Amino acid sequence: MYIAVADLSSAYHSVRLSADSEQYATLATPSGRRLRSTCIPFGSSLGPPLFSFVSAVLITAWRREIRRAGMRAWAIQYLDDTGIVAATEAEAWYGLLLLLSLAKTMGFTVQTKKSVAPRQVATILGVEITTSPHVRVGLPVDKIARVRTLLRGCNQCINSPTPVAIPP
Question: Residue 128: left (phi > 0), alpha (psi -120 to 50), or beta?
């Protein structure tokens, strides 16, 4: 099994608001100036569900094309991150390139620095997935090291009669 990862860039900013909705995404500055957003503003409580709704159209189109090509591949999506899982490296490449093409057609931009070519060990949503020889899911080694350092610092704090600074 192979996994590829696509990360959409400025995801919320790729979803335009209708002219009628822009008034609800307007901020007033202390000087009285009004700043109107033409896309989903970052931090909006409606941002995640709106973006999920819009990006579901992308994934639905992707699944339709995968079925049409007679392939067995899956998309694992959370907001702007999508993992493509396929049985072979060639199918994972096909799935990734198809997703990138559809995303571009629909007006999304992909972050190439955060996207990953098909491989058997990939990190998506902060979780490391290994597919060969057996499927394993865990934390990346660097994250485990940071947690251990933090826990050592906590242990020192708990066991010390005087305050101890916890390393960053």
Answer: beta
